[in-house]
Amino acid sequence: DTISQLRMFHYLPQTEKCDKQCMGSSPHTDWHFVTIISRDAASTLEYFDRKAGEWVSVRSQPDELLLLIGDWLSAYSDSTFHAPAHRVLSPTQESSLSFVLFFYPSIMARLPKDRGSVTKCKEEVNSVESSMFELAWGDYVVKKWAQVMSNR
User: Fold this and answer.
1) From CA 141, how far away is CA 19, in angstroms rounded?
2) What does the H/E/C string look like for the chain?
3) If 0-12 CB within 10 Å is exposed, 13-18 middle and 19+ buried, where does residue 43 land?
4) Which of 29-43, 87-101, 122-136 has the lowest mean pLDDT?
5) Single pTM value for the model
């Protein structure tokens, strides 16, 4: 059985204390299979362009859904699909809402033995050791969570 989770993110406007770009969501890659996003235009979603070496705003049309590849799908595809580093900048004037559907594999899912290579550049965040993809999905998430929380 797969797991899906729909979350609503409410980004508040920047405060006067914010002298630079305020983060609504810090830079990260998604850990799972895919993410589907429905969002308004008040906040700014950015991805890290590996070729240009800089953060770029995602251009989208109203009522358009965005699809992000996660680390697990990137590993499954042997990096044919790339899990982009991305972040959200807080809105400047008004609140912003995003509805985000996360699609996870079954807790016992494993990648095939011949899969699990993920190509990332040194500037990317939330790097994943290839050996972690040898774990079942549930164990991978526990280890990944511990890794992320230890960096706080």
Assistant:
1) 35
2) CCEEEEEEEEECCCCCCCCCCCEEEEEECCCCCEEEEEECCCCEEEEEECCCCEEEECCCCCCCEEEEECHHHHHHCCCCCCCCCEEEECCCCCCEEEEEEEEECCCCCCCCCCCCCCCCCCCCCCCCCHHHHHCCHHHHHHHHHHHHHHCC
3) buried
4) 122-136
5) 0.83
The Cα-based distances of 92 to 24, 86, 98, 112 in angstroms read 11, 19, 16, 45
Nearest to 30 by CA among 106, 87, 98, 109: 87
pLDDT, tens only, 38-79: 999 888 999 999 899 999 999 888 889 999 999 889 888 888
Q: Could you report the per-residue pLDDT of 2-30, keeping only the tens digit for each?
A: 889 999 999 988 887 775 667 788 888 88
How far apart (Å, rounded) are the C-alpha atoms in residues 28 and 56? 14
CA distance from start to end of the chain:
32
The structure tokens 């995602």 sit at 58
